[in-house]
Write a structure and sequence with these properties.
With 178 residues, the protein is mainly α. The protein contains 7 helices and 2 strands, in the order ααββααααα. A two-stranded antiparallel sheet has the order 1-2.
């Protein structure tokens, strides 16, 4: 269920990026900036260092999302098991990622492909989106950016639906009616 929620958040951010890029194509910069919000190309935040000195830092949404995914699929071993290499490896073998590899390898493959494709798109076009929010976007820039934008979003949606179907099938809530 955590993976489903991570994907939900990522899909929402990707949809905001797609909407912002569509507005950029129409040269509606102000609306694009407002619509963009926190998307999957990055988030600016400040870190207080030393005696109240603030440093602006760029945190990639992709890094945060993939970090969350890794923590769910391959979590750290419990503290008491970290001291023993054998126990740590044993805990790693009992991860959600391992279970998915056994019970639903197609879903795991689709999941990894969708996340990888969107991550790659963001890596390739994230800077261009941020630049376009300041200066606008030409039709040729839009064509390059939009080539895989919708396909990667569709991939995230599809894998989220597969995961939802698996959850509902394996863990139904409520009883049978009748």
């Amino acid at each position: 269920m955590e993976l489903h929620e991570i994907l939900r958040e990522w899909c929402e951010a990707a949809e905001r990026t797609s909407a912002a890029v569509a507005l950029l194509r129409q040269q509606r910069l102000r609306e694009a900036r407002d619509n963009y919000g926190v998307s999957n190309t990055g988030v600016m935040f400040s870190v207080v260092v030393g005696k109240g000195v603030q440093v602006g830092t760029f945190n990639s949404y992709v890094n945060r999302a993939t970090g969350d995914i890794d923590a769910v699929l391959q979590p750290s071993a419990p503290v008491m098991q970290r001291w023993s290499g054998a126990k740590r490896r044993q805990a790693a073998r009992r991860s959600l990622g391992s279970l998915m590899g056994i019970y639903c390898p197609e879903l795991l493959t689709d999941f990894n492909a969708a996340v990888s494709a969107r991550s790659q798109w963001v890596e390739e076009h994230g800077r261009a989106v941020r630049k376009a929010l300041k200066a606008g976007l030409s039709d040729s820039e839009f064509q390059v950016m939009a080539a895989d934008m919708q396909a990667t979003l569709d991939g995230l949606h599809a894998v989220r639906q597969q995961l939802l179907a698996l959850i509902q099938e394996r863990f139904p809530l409520g009883g049978e009616s009748g």
